[in-house]
Amino acid sequence: MQTPHLRFRAALDEFGRRLDAIPGDAWEQPTPCAAWTVRDLVDHVVDETCWARSVLVPTPADDNDADDAGGPEDPVARWHDAASALSPALGSSEVLDRTIDLPSRRVPARELLPELTVDHLVHAWDLASATGGDTHLDRDLVTACATWFDEHEDEWREAGQIGPALAVPADADDQRSLLARFGRQEHAPDDPGGLS
Predict the structure, then answer these.
(1) Residue 146 domain-assigned?
(2) What CATH number should be reported for the domain holding residue 83?
(3) Closest by alpha carbon to 154, among 145, 140, 164, 144?
């Protein structure tokens, strides 16, 4: 898993597994994201995934309403529609050469994909921690995201995209350290304090 497009596809898988495992009564539970319920968190990531599909997988103009195929009350269906459409595109390195028009700039997909990857990965942990799911993220993907984030953490924090980092022990593993840089606290397995 060495390239940005394959890392993003892996992050989609990480989030999708947690999404499919959400208990039916968990949608209004709080999450590590301040003021967001599970439904709010999922809506955010699904919207982001639908947007990624719209810019990475060109479709005819009359298909512009495809992002809403699942309806506003069915985020899981919308997720699967978007992720299924993205997956083939992310199987080829050609996607890296696409140019993406953002409100403030034009960027090559190879620069945008790592941002989408780290956001989906951290939110996969948010979703799992909020719903009692599997909080163990793919180790290689965590390491790749942490390495990329080394060069972007300051600009994200200055732009208000993330809050203050939390302190972690010097021997904290990569996942715990990455989450702390995003303001998430993951306690060691033998710590009775659990998540906060």
Answers:
(1) no
(2) 1.20.120.450
(3) 164
- What phi and psi, each to the nearest 5 degrees, are found at residue 106? -110, 135
Tens of pLDDT, residue by residue over 124-164, are: 999 999 999 999 999 999 999 999 999 999 999 998 888 89
Environment class of 3 (CB within 10 Å of its CB; exposed 0-12, middle 13-18, buried 19+): middle
For range 69-86, the mean pLDDT: 81
Among 158, 160, 140, CA closest to 148 = 140
Please say if the pLDDT value at position 112 is more than 50.
yes
Cα 65 from Cα 58, distance rounded (Å): 13
Higher pLDDT, 61 or 130: 130
Residue 24 resides in a domain: yes
Residue 53 buriedness (CB in 10 A; 0-12 / 13-18 / 19+) = buried
**Per the structure, how many domains does the chain have?**
1
CB contact at 8 A, 132 and 39: no
CA–CA gap between residue 82 and residue 78 (Å, rounded): 6
Global pTM? 0.87
Tokens linked to 171 = 């021997």
d(CA 40, CA 147): 28
DSSP 15-48: HHHHHHT--TT-TTSB-SSTT-BHHHHHHHHHHH
